[in-house]
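Hi D.,

Good news: the full-assembly prediction came through. Inputs first.
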Amino acid sequence: MTHIDSYYSRTAEPGIQAQVLRTEIDTPVCIIGGGLAGISTALGLAERGINCVLLEAQQVGWGASGRNGGFVGRGFSQNALKLAKTLGESHARRLYSLTGQAFGLMQQRIEGHEESILQPGSGSVTASWFDDEPGVKHYVAEMNRIFDETLEFWPREKIAENYLTSRYYDGFLKPDTMRMHSLNYTIHTATLAMQKGARIYEGTPAKKIRRKGSRWHIVTPSGLVNADQIVYACSGYIGSLHGKLSRATLPVATYVLLTEPLGERLHDAIRAPYAAGDNRFSSNYYRIVGDKQLLWGGRVSMFQPTQERLKVIMVNDLLSVYPQLKGVKGEVAWGGFMGYARHKMPQIGQLKPSEWYCQGFGGSGMVTTTMGGELIASAIAADDDRYQMFARFGLSYVGKPFGPIIAQLAYWSYQLQDALQVSRLNRKF
Ligand SMILES: Cc1cc2nc3c(=O)[nH]c(=O)nc-3n(C[C@H](O)[C@H](O)[C@H](O)COP(=O)(O)OP(=O)(O)OC[C@H]3O[C@@H](n4cnc5c(N)ncnc54)[C@H](O)[C@@H]3O)c2cc1C
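Then the structure:
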Protein backbone atom coordinates (compact mmCIF):
# COMPACT_ATOMS: atom_id res chain seq x y z
CA MET A 1 0.00 0.00 0.00
CA THR A 2 1.29 3.50 -0.78
CA HIS A 3 1.55 6.31 1.74
CA ILE A 4 -1.65 8.23 2.43
CA ASP A 5 -2.04 11.66 0.84
CA SER A 6 -0.30 14.17 3.12
CA TYR A 7 2.15 17.05 3.07
CA TYR A 8 4.88 14.46 3.62
CA SER A 9 3.95 12.00 0.88
CA ARG A 10 3.60 14.94 -1.55
CA THR A 11 7.13 16.13 -0.83
CA ALA A 12 8.96 12.89 0.06
CA GLU A 13 12.25 11.59 -1.21
CA PRO A 14 11.98 8.22 -3.01
CA GLY A 15 11.28 5.38 -0.57
CA ILE A 16 13.61 2.47 0.02
CA GLN A 17 11.89 0.25 -2.60
CA ALA A 18 12.22 -2.87 -0.50
CA GLN A 19 11.04 -6.28 -1.69
CA VAL A 20 8.12 -8.36 -0.47
CA LEU A 21 9.40 -11.45 1.38
CA ARG A 22 8.74 -14.49 -0.84
CA THR A 23 10.98 -17.13 0.66
CA GLU A 24 12.16 -18.66 3.95
CA ILE A 25 14.97 -16.79 5.66
CA ASP A 26 17.00 -16.99 8.82
CA THR A 27 18.09 -14.16 11.13
CA PRO A 28 19.35 -13.55 14.66
CA VAL A 29 16.63 -10.89 15.22
CA CYS A 30 13.31 -10.23 13.48
CA ILE A 31 11.64 -6.83 14.05
CA ILE A 32 7.95 -6.39 13.25
CA GLY A 33 6.90 -2.86 12.25
CA GLY A 34 8.67 -0.34 10.02
CA GLY A 35 7.90 2.85 11.91
CA LEU A 36 10.60 4.76 13.75
CA ALA A 37 10.52 2.36 16.70
CA GLY A 38 11.28 -0.68 14.53
CA ILE A 39 13.71 1.11 12.25
CA SER A 40 15.64 2.68 15.15
CA THR A 41 15.96 -0.79 16.65
CA ALA A 42 17.17 -2.19 13.31
CA LEU A 43 19.70 0.62 12.90
CA GLY A 44 20.88 0.27 16.50
CA LEU A 45 21.40 -3.46 15.97
CA ALA A 46 23.13 -2.96 12.61
CA GLU A 47 25.48 -0.40 14.19
CA ARG A 48 26.35 -3.04 16.79
CA GLY A 49 27.11 -5.68 14.14
CA ILE A 50 23.81 -7.61 14.28
CA ASN A 51 22.21 -8.04 10.88
CA CYS A 52 18.49 -8.24 11.56
CA VAL A 53 15.37 -8.60 9.44
CA LEU A 54 12.55 -6.02 9.61
CA LEU A 55 9.04 -6.75 8.32
CA GLU A 56 6.71 -3.86 7.44
CA ALA A 57 3.10 -4.59 6.49
CA GLN A 58 2.83 -1.56 4.17
CA GLN A 59 5.78 0.75 3.46
CA VAL A 60 8.48 2.03 5.77
CA GLY A 61 7.05 5.13 7.51
CA TRP A 62 3.47 4.37 6.42
CA GLY A 63 2.19 4.62 10.04
CA ALA A 64 2.44 7.57 12.42
CA SER A 65 6.18 7.97 11.82
CA GLY A 66 5.77 9.19 8.25
CA ARG A 67 2.78 11.47 8.72
CA ASN A 68 3.10 13.27 12.07
CA GLY A 69 3.52 16.90 13.07
CA GLY A 70 7.31 16.76 12.77
CA PHE A 71 7.90 18.38 16.19
CA VAL A 72 11.08 16.92 17.61
CA GLY A 73 11.97 17.58 21.22
CA ARG A 74 13.00 15.87 24.46
CA GLY A 75 10.43 14.41 26.80
CA PHE A 76 7.55 11.93 26.90
CA SER A 77 3.81 12.06 26.34
CA GLN A 78 3.46 12.03 30.12
CA ASN A 79 4.04 15.44 31.72
CA ALA A 80 7.62 15.57 33.04
CA LEU A 81 6.69 17.31 36.30
CA LYS A 82 4.10 14.62 36.99
CA LEU A 83 6.81 12.03 36.43
CA ALA A 84 9.08 13.82 38.90
CA LYS A 85 6.26 13.79 41.44
CA THR A 86 5.48 10.09 41.07
CA LEU A 87 8.98 8.66 40.49
CA GLY A 88 11.10 11.16 42.39
CA GLU A 89 13.25 13.79 40.72
CA SER A 90 16.32 11.64 40.31
CA HIS A 91 14.59 8.74 38.50
CA ALA A 92 12.56 11.14 36.36
CA ARG A 93 15.73 13.04 35.46
CA ARG A 94 17.46 9.81 34.36
CA LEU A 95 14.53 8.89 32.12
CA TYR A 96 14.33 12.38 30.67
CA SER A 97 18.06 12.46 29.97
CA LEU A 98 17.68 9.31 27.83
CA THR A 99 15.50 11.39 25.51
CA GLY A 100 18.23 14.04 25.45
CA GLN A 101 20.76 11.41 24.33
CA ALA A 102 18.34 10.18 21.65
CA PHE A 103 17.84 13.76 20.44
CA GLY A 104 21.64 14.05 20.02
CA LEU A 105 21.77 10.73 18.17
CA MET A 106 19.09 11.93 15.76
CA GLN A 107 21.15 15.05 15.06
CA GLN A 108 24.17 12.85 14.26
CA ARG A 109 22.12 10.57 12.01
CA ILE A 110 20.81 13.54 10.04
CA GLU A 111 24.27 14.99 9.37
CA GLY A 112 24.77 15.58 5.64
CA HIS A 113 21.02 15.20 4.97
CA GLU A 114 19.77 18.31 6.71
CA GLU A 115 18.31 19.80 3.56
CA SER A 116 15.77 17.06 2.90
CA ILE A 117 14.96 16.35 6.56
CA LEU A 118 15.28 19.45 8.70
CA GLN A 119 13.36 22.64 8.47
CA PRO A 120 15.82 25.51 9.06
CA GLY A 121 15.74 27.22 12.44
CA SER A 122 14.83 25.72 15.74
CA GLY A 123 12.67 26.30 18.77
CA SER A 124 9.03 26.02 19.69
CA VAL A 125 6.73 28.23 21.72
CA THR A 126 4.03 26.90 24.03
CA ALA A 127 1.35 29.45 24.78
CA SER A 128 -0.95 29.10 27.74
CA TRP A 129 -4.66 28.90 27.00
CA PHE A 130 -5.27 29.82 30.63
CA ASP A 131 -4.86 33.05 32.58
CA ASP A 132 -2.29 31.54 34.92
CA GLU A 133 1.00 33.42 34.88
CA PRO A 134 2.25 31.86 38.17
CA GLY A 135 1.49 28.37 36.80
CA VAL A 136 3.50 28.98 33.62
CA LYS A 137 6.39 30.53 35.56
CA HIS A 138 6.42 27.59 37.95
CA TYR A 139 6.47 25.10 35.05
CA VAL A 140 9.39 26.90 33.37
CA ALA A 141 11.40 27.15 36.59
CA GLU A 142 10.84 23.50 37.55
CA MET A 143 11.63 22.15 34.07
CA ASN A 144 14.86 24.15 34.06
CA ARG A 145 15.79 23.10 37.60
CA ILE A 146 14.92 19.41 37.46
CA PHE A 147 15.58 18.57 33.82
CA ASP A 148 18.28 21.09 32.85
CA GLU A 149 16.00 22.54 30.22
CA THR A 150 16.59 26.09 28.98
CA LEU A 151 12.98 27.22 28.74
CA GLU A 152 12.48 30.98 28.47
CA PHE A 153 9.36 32.54 29.97
CA TRP A 154 7.44 34.81 27.58
CA PRO A 155 5.04 37.29 29.17
CA ARG A 156 1.62 37.60 27.53
CA GLU A 157 2.59 40.87 25.81
CA LYS A 158 5.42 39.10 23.97
CA ILE A 159 3.16 36.17 23.08
CA ALA A 160 0.56 38.64 21.75
CA GLU A 161 3.15 40.45 19.59
CA ASN A 162 4.13 37.18 17.94
CA TYR A 163 0.87 35.20 17.86
CA LEU A 164 -2.06 37.45 17.06
CA THR A 165 -4.85 35.61 18.84
CA SER A 166 -6.99 36.53 21.82
CA ARG A 167 -6.82 32.89 22.96
CA TYR A 168 -3.36 32.97 24.47
CA TYR A 169 -1.90 34.32 27.72
CA ASP A 170 1.71 33.80 28.85
CA GLY A 171 4.00 31.13 27.45
CA PHE A 172 7.54 29.92 27.02
CA LEU A 173 10.11 29.22 24.34
CA LYS A 174 11.90 25.89 24.18
CA PRO A 175 14.84 27.05 22.08
CA ASP A 176 16.42 23.81 20.91
CA THR A 177 13.63 21.73 19.38
CA MET A 178 13.84 20.58 15.75
CA ARG A 179 11.18 20.51 13.03
CA MET A 180 11.42 17.66 10.64
CA HIS A 181 10.11 16.10 7.46
CA SER A 182 9.17 12.98 9.37
CA LEU A 183 8.76 10.71 6.35
CA ASN A 184 12.13 11.69 4.88
CA TYR A 185 13.75 11.10 8.27
CA THR A 186 12.13 7.66 8.53
CA ILE A 187 13.22 6.71 5.01
CA HIS A 188 16.73 8.04 5.75
CA THR A 189 17.15 5.97 8.91
CA ALA A 190 15.86 2.87 7.10
CA THR A 191 18.42 3.50 4.35
CA LEU A 192 21.19 3.78 6.96
CA ALA A 193 20.07 0.50 8.56
CA MET A 194 20.10 -1.27 5.17
CA GLN A 195 23.52 0.14 4.32
CA LYS A 196 24.79 -1.34 7.58
CA GLY A 197 23.33 -4.77 6.86
CA ALA A 198 19.68 -4.82 7.98
CA ARG A 199 17.28 -6.59 5.59
CA ILE A 200 13.95 -4.78 5.27
CA TYR A 201 10.84 -6.21 3.61
CA GLU A 202 7.84 -4.03 2.76
CA GLY A 203 4.31 -5.22 1.94
CA THR A 204 5.08 -8.07 4.32
CA PRO A 205 2.80 -8.29 7.35
CA ALA A 206 3.63 -10.75 10.11
CA LYS A 207 0.51 -12.89 10.24
CA LYS A 208 1.34 -15.58 12.79
CA ILE A 209 4.12 -16.02 15.25
CA ARG A 210 5.04 -19.41 16.66
CA ARG A 211 7.68 -20.60 19.07
CA LYS A 212 9.44 -23.76 17.84
CA GLY A 213 12.14 -25.05 20.15
CA SER A 214 14.46 -22.15 20.87
CA ARG A 215 13.46 -20.21 17.73
CA TRP A 216 10.67 -17.90 16.54
CA HIS A 217 8.82 -18.67 13.30
CA ILE A 218 7.23 -15.55 11.82
CA VAL A 219 4.74 -16.41 9.10
CA THR A 220 3.99 -13.84 6.37
CA PRO A 221 1.58 -14.22 3.41
CA SER A 222 4.32 -15.57 1.12
CA GLY A 223 7.34 -16.18 3.33
CA LEU A 224 8.72 -17.34 6.64
CA VAL A 225 11.33 -15.86 8.98
CA ASN A 226 13.18 -18.06 11.47
CA ALA A 227 14.66 -15.91 14.22
CA ASP A 228 16.47 -16.31 17.53
CA GLN A 229 14.86 -13.15 18.91
CA ILE A 230 11.80 -11.10 18.02
CA VAL A 231 10.95 -7.41 18.57
CA TYR A 232 7.38 -6.11 18.32
CA ALA A 233 7.16 -2.45 17.20
CA CYS A 234 3.65 -2.16 15.73
CA SER A 235 2.24 0.70 17.83
CA GLY A 236 -1.38 1.74 17.12
CA TYR A 237 -1.49 -0.58 14.12
CA ILE A 238 -0.86 -3.78 16.06
CA GLY A 239 -4.43 -5.07 15.68
CA SER A 240 -4.72 -8.48 17.30
CA LEU A 241 -1.21 -9.70 16.45
CA HIS A 242 -0.18 -10.37 20.05
CA GLY A 243 -2.74 -10.77 22.86
CA LYS A 244 -0.86 -9.06 25.66
CA LEU A 245 0.77 -6.29 23.61
CA SER A 246 -2.42 -5.61 21.64
CA ARG A 247 -4.46 -5.33 24.84
CA ALA A 248 -1.92 -2.88 26.27
CA THR A 249 -2.15 -0.55 23.23
CA LEU A 250 -4.82 2.09 22.82
CA PRO A 251 -4.87 3.31 19.20
CA VAL A 252 -5.74 7.02 19.29
CA ALA A 253 -6.47 8.87 16.04
CA THR A 254 -5.13 12.40 15.64
CA TYR A 255 -4.98 14.85 12.73
CA VAL A 256 -2.98 17.36 10.71
CA LEU A 257 -4.01 19.97 8.13
CA LEU A 258 -1.87 21.65 5.46
CA THR A 259 -3.30 25.01 4.36
CA GLU A 260 -2.96 26.67 1.00
CA PRO A 261 -0.09 29.21 0.73
CA LEU A 262 -1.06 32.15 2.94
CA GLY A 263 1.27 34.79 1.48
CA GLU A 264 1.20 38.08 3.37
CA ARG A 265 -1.91 36.98 5.34
CA LEU A 266 0.31 34.80 7.46
CA HIS A 267 1.78 37.96 8.98
CA ASP A 268 -1.73 38.91 10.24
CA ALA A 269 -1.61 35.85 12.47
CA ILE A 270 1.94 34.68 13.14
CA ARG A 271 5.12 36.72 13.35
CA ALA A 272 7.57 34.45 15.18
CA PRO A 273 9.76 31.96 13.33
CA TYR A 274 9.08 29.20 15.87
CA ALA A 275 6.80 26.21 15.82
CA ALA A 276 3.96 26.79 18.27
CA GLY A 277 1.22 25.18 20.27
CA ASP A 278 -0.90 25.64 23.35
CA ASN A 279 -0.98 23.90 26.71
CA ARG A 280 -4.46 22.38 26.79
CA PHE A 281 -4.87 18.66 27.23
CA SER A 282 -6.37 18.68 23.72
CA SER A 283 -3.96 21.19 22.25
CA ASN A 284 -3.27 22.52 18.78
CA TYR A 285 0.28 22.67 17.46
CA TYR A 286 1.51 24.22 14.23
CA ARG A 287 4.43 25.38 12.14
CA ILE A 288 5.06 27.11 8.84
CA VAL A 289 6.17 24.92 5.93
CA GLY A 290 6.62 25.16 2.17
CA ASP A 291 5.26 28.30 0.58
CA LYS A 292 4.08 30.13 3.75
CA GLN A 293 1.65 27.30 4.52
CA LEU A 294 0.50 26.27 7.97
CA LEU A 295 0.85 22.69 9.08
CA TRP A 296 -1.84 22.64 11.78
CA GLY A 297 -2.25 19.65 14.08
CA GLY A 298 -4.62 18.69 16.84
CA ARG A 299 -7.64 16.72 18.09
CA VAL A 300 -7.95 13.11 19.00
CA SER A 301 -10.99 10.98 18.33
CA MET A 302 -12.37 7.54 18.01
CA PHE A 303 -12.93 7.25 14.26
CA GLN A 304 -11.07 8.91 11.43
CA PRO A 305 -13.33 11.08 9.25
CA THR A 306 -12.73 11.18 5.48
CA GLN A 307 -9.87 13.40 4.38
CA GLU A 308 -12.32 15.90 2.75
CA ARG A 309 -14.44 16.16 5.94
CA LEU A 310 -11.28 16.46 8.00
CA LYS A 311 -10.16 19.50 6.01
CA VAL A 312 -13.35 21.34 7.06
CA ILE A 313 -13.01 20.29 10.71
CA MET A 314 -9.37 21.32 10.93
CA VAL A 315 -9.87 24.65 9.12
CA ASN A 316 -12.62 25.44 11.66
CA ASP A 317 -10.20 24.61 14.49
CA LEU A 318 -7.63 26.95 12.95
CA LEU A 319 -10.21 29.75 12.63
CA SER A 320 -11.23 29.36 16.26
CA VAL A 321 -7.70 30.51 17.13
CA TYR A 322 -6.98 32.83 14.19
CA PRO A 323 -10.36 34.14 12.93
CA GLN A 324 -8.51 36.75 10.84
CA LEU A 325 -7.58 33.92 8.44
CA LYS A 326 -11.26 33.45 7.47
CA GLY A 327 -11.53 32.12 3.94
CA VAL A 328 -8.31 30.08 4.16
CA LYS A 329 -8.51 26.81 2.27
CA GLY A 330 -7.09 23.47 3.29
CA GLU A 331 -4.90 21.70 0.74
CA VAL A 332 -4.88 18.32 2.42
CA ALA A 333 -5.74 16.91 5.84
CA TRP A 334 -4.92 13.49 7.17
CA GLY A 335 -4.98 11.40 10.30
CA GLY A 336 -2.99 8.62 11.85
CA PHE A 337 -3.02 6.38 14.88
CA MET A 338 -0.76 6.86 17.86
CA GLY A 339 -0.24 3.92 20.21
CA TYR A 340 -0.88 4.94 23.81
CA ALA A 341 -0.37 3.06 27.04
CA ARG A 342 -2.63 3.86 29.99
CA HIS A 343 0.28 5.51 31.79
CA LYS A 344 1.29 7.58 28.71
CA MET A 345 4.86 6.29 28.96
CA PRO A 346 6.69 4.08 26.45
CA GLN A 347 6.49 0.33 26.85
CA ILE A 348 9.99 -0.99 26.34
CA GLY A 349 10.95 -4.42 27.60
CA GLN A 350 10.97 -8.17 27.38
CA LEU A 351 8.02 -10.56 27.74
CA LYS A 352 10.32 -13.54 28.10
CA PRO A 353 13.93 -14.12 27.06
CA SER A 354 14.22 -13.38 23.31
CA GLU A 355 10.74 -11.75 23.03
CA TRP A 356 10.95 -7.92 23.08
CA TYR A 357 8.55 -5.02 22.67
CA CYS A 358 9.08 -1.34 21.84
CA GLN A 359 5.77 0.55 21.66
CA GLY A 360 3.43 3.07 23.31
CA PHE A 361 5.21 6.29 22.32
CA GLY A 362 1.95 8.23 22.11
CA GLY A 363 2.08 11.77 20.75
CA SER A 364 5.79 12.32 21.49
CA GLY A 365 7.38 9.56 19.47
CA MET A 366 9.92 11.22 17.20
CA VAL A 367 12.65 11.22 19.84
CA THR A 368 11.42 8.51 22.21
CA THR A 369 11.29 5.86 19.44
CA THR A 370 14.99 6.51 18.83
CA MET A 371 15.58 6.05 22.55
CA GLY A 372 13.51 2.84 22.63
CA GLY A 373 15.33 1.42 19.61
CA GLU A 374 18.69 2.13 21.22
CA LEU A 375 17.71 0.54 24.53
CA ILE A 376 16.44 -2.65 22.88
CA ALA A 377 19.37 -2.87 20.45
CA SER A 378 21.86 -2.37 23.25
CA ALA A 379 20.08 -4.95 25.43
CA ILE A 380 20.17 -7.56 22.66
CA ALA A 381 23.72 -6.83 21.53
CA ALA A 382 25.41 -6.11 24.84
CA ASP A 383 23.13 -7.24 27.69
CA ASP A 384 22.59 -3.58 28.58
CA ASP A 385 19.83 -3.54 31.21
CA ARG A 386 18.87 0.16 30.96
CA TYR A 387 15.58 -0.85 29.29
CA GLN A 388 14.50 -2.03 32.74
CA MET A 389 14.15 1.61 33.77
CA PHE A 390 10.79 1.39 31.95
CA ALA A 391 9.72 -1.86 33.61
CA ARG A 392 7.59 -0.15 36.24
CA PHE A 393 5.24 1.31 33.60
CA GLY A 394 4.21 -2.13 32.41
CA LEU A 395 1.69 -3.49 29.94
CA SER A 396 -1.54 -2.60 31.67
CA TYR A 397 -4.81 -3.43 29.93
CA VAL A 398 -6.35 -0.46 28.08
CA GLY A 399 -9.89 -1.76 28.08
CA LYS A 400 -10.27 -3.37 24.66
CA PRO A 401 -12.63 -3.99 22.88
CA PHE A 402 -13.87 -0.68 24.30
CA GLY A 403 -10.49 1.00 23.71
CA PRO A 404 -11.63 3.47 21.04
CA ILE A 405 -14.66 4.42 23.12
CA ILE A 406 -12.38 4.92 26.10
CA ALA A 407 -10.15 7.14 23.92
CA GLN A 408 -13.16 9.25 22.93
CA LEU A 409 -14.34 9.48 26.54
CA ALA A 410 -10.84 10.46 27.62
CA TYR A 411 -10.77 13.17 24.95
CA TRP A 412 -14.14 14.55 26.06
CA SER A 413 -12.98 14.52 29.66
CA TYR A 414 -9.82 16.42 28.62
CA GLN A 415 -11.97 18.98 26.80
CA LEU A 416 -14.13 19.29 29.90
CA GLN A 417 -11.07 19.81 32.10
CA ASP A 418 -9.85 22.50 29.66
CA ALA A 419 -13.25 24.20 29.77
CA LEU A 420 -13.36 24.06 33.58
CA GLN A 421 -9.87 25.52 33.78
CA VAL A 422 -10.89 28.30 31.39
CA SER A 423 -13.91 29.20 33.53
CA ARG A 424 -11.80 29.07 36.70
CA LEU A 425 -8.85 31.10 35.46
CA ASN A 426 -9.81 33.19 32.44
CA ARG A 427 -11.68 36.42 32.58
CA LYS A 428 -11.57 37.07 28.84
CA PHE A 429 -14.23 34.60 27.68
C1 LIG B 1 -1.02 12.86 13.15
C2 LIG B 1 0.09 12.61 14.15
C3 LIG B 1 0.86 13.68 14.58
C4 LIG B 1 1.94 13.44 15.47
N1 LIG B 1 2.80 14.49 15.76
C5 LIG B 1 3.95 14.21 16.44
C6 LIG B 1 4.93 15.23 16.60
O1 LIG B 1 4.81 16.34 16.07
N2 LIG B 1 6.06 14.91 17.31
C7 LIG B 1 6.23 13.69 17.87
O2 LIG B 1 7.26 13.47 18.54
N3 LIG B 1 5.33 12.69 17.71
C8 LIG B 1 4.21 12.92 17.00
N4 LIG B 1 3.30 11.92 16.79
C9 LIG B 1 3.57 10.59 17.39
C10 LIG B 1 4.64 9.81 16.62
O3 LIG B 1 4.42 9.93 15.23
C11 LIG B 1 4.58 8.34 17.05
O4 LIG B 1 4.71 8.25 18.45
C12 LIG B 1 5.70 7.50 16.43
O5 LIG B 1 5.81 7.75 15.06
C13 LIG B 1 5.44 6.02 16.71
O6 LIG B 1 6.35 5.25 15.96
P1 LIG B 1 6.16 3.68 15.90
O7 LIG B 1 7.23 3.13 15.08
O8 LIG B 1 5.97 3.18 17.29
O9 LIG B 1 4.73 3.48 15.18
P2 LIG B 1 4.31 3.68 13.65
O10 LIG B 1 5.09 4.74 12.99
O11 LIG B 1 2.83 3.82 13.65
O12 LIG B 1 4.75 2.31 12.97
C14 LIG B 1 4.15 1.07 13.23
C15 LIG B 1 4.31 0.25 11.96
O13 LIG B 1 4.03 -1.11 12.25
C16 LIG B 1 3.48 -1.68 11.08
N5 LIG B 1 2.81 -2.93 11.44
C17 LIG B 1 1.74 -3.09 12.26
N6 LIG B 1 1.41 -4.40 12.35
C18 LIG B 1 2.30 -5.08 11.57
C19 LIG B 1 2.49 -6.45 11.24
N7 LIG B 1 1.66 -7.41 11.73
N8 LIG B 1 3.49 -6.81 10.42
C20 LIG B 1 4.33 -5.86 9.92
N9 LIG B 1 4.19 -4.54 10.18
C21 LIG B 1 3.19 -4.15 11.00
C22 LIG B 1 2.55 -0.59 10.55
O14 LIG B 1 2.25 -0.77 9.18
C23 LIG B 1 3.36 0.66 10.84
O15 LIG B 1 4.11 1.10 9.73
C24 LIG B 1 2.19 12.12 15.96
C25 LIG B 1 1.39 11.06 15.54
C26 LIG B 1 0.35 11.29 14.64
C27 LIG B 1 -0.51 10.12 14.18
